[in-house]
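Example 4.3 (complexes with small molecules)
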Amino acid sequence: MYTSFDQTTLDKIVTLLKSGQPEFLSGEKLSKTLGLSRAAVWKNIKKLKSIGYKIESKQNAGYKLHPNTNLLFPWEISDGLQTGIIGGKIYYFDVIDSTQNFALELSQKPHENGSVVIAERQTQGRGRLNRKWVSPKGGIWLSILLRPNFEPSYTSLFPMLTSLALSVAIEKTLKIKTGLKWPNDVTINGDKVAGILIDASIESNKIDYLVIGVGINFKIKPDKITSQIKTGQKKYGIATLVKQGKTGNPVKLVQQFLLELELHYNNVISGSTGNIRKEWMKRSLTIGKSVTITTTSGTIKGKAVGIDKTGALLLSSRGKVQRVLAGDISYKK
Ligand code: BT5
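Answer. The structure with biotinyl-5-AMP bound is encoded below.
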């Protein structure tokens, strides 16, 4: 595990090499600044290369870092992150069962409001209702722990505001237009590119904590995911943000997403949720459509006519409008 707050030699070397860009930084300078032997510097450079950094070494000149490494290490995400609360602490894993589980453990500790957990790969990624979330290398799998001080009914706003924040961040950093499908999907041409999962703990009518889980297929061949989903669970097509052979910067996307998320979070805290709803509706693929919603207590059909201020879907059928809090939507063809 790497974190954004326990500075390691690796992260110190990256910072020094970045400050030296585009020049070479001599091994001697590195060893003096870090108080390490030349051999130790070399060992760390080797380690950095093994975890994905592109570092050029030249005799008598030293080391040069190749820019835009696109690695999601915590020090990379922290570098230039403009948020106040979210991402104050970042935990990174090469492999983890589920970032959601780790964030839930963090919720038992003090001073973790806003902490972000990110992994390169998950072995037991989960979706809603304990469904499997396929999480190979090439995706962005992250969870955010928040301790908002408001009433539980606001919880259902979070899938909406999180998917909105992600859609806006994708558009700003990758110039890709996405659609939003109630309650928690981000799609490209109708295919799912990201999903959101909210775990909430409510105590004596107050939110104790929320863990927002976000899974983004950043650069993964959709087949790799489809092949691991049971036939009965294949409800939608799967998309990736960046196609093989193309480039895109996942660090910039995560930074922008955390910033957009924090903006909405602060709006919810100050009670102004109207804009979230308006912006979500603009990007929504659901409103105005005839839908079938599968919920844990059965199937409901009707026309999706809007979203109320808590994020519930307003479904009109037989002249009556009802609120639906959660479920899976399919559109009438
Ligand atoms: C979701 O559930 O869409 C929530 C996904 C949340 C994943 C994140 S990753 C970080 C954090 N840690 C976790 O363990 N989870 C969160 P739901 O709407 O229930 O969709 C689940 C369904 O999507 C599955 O039944 C599959 O059909 C499909 N699916 C599985 N993996 C997928 C993937 N990588 N991309 C697109 N669809 C997928």
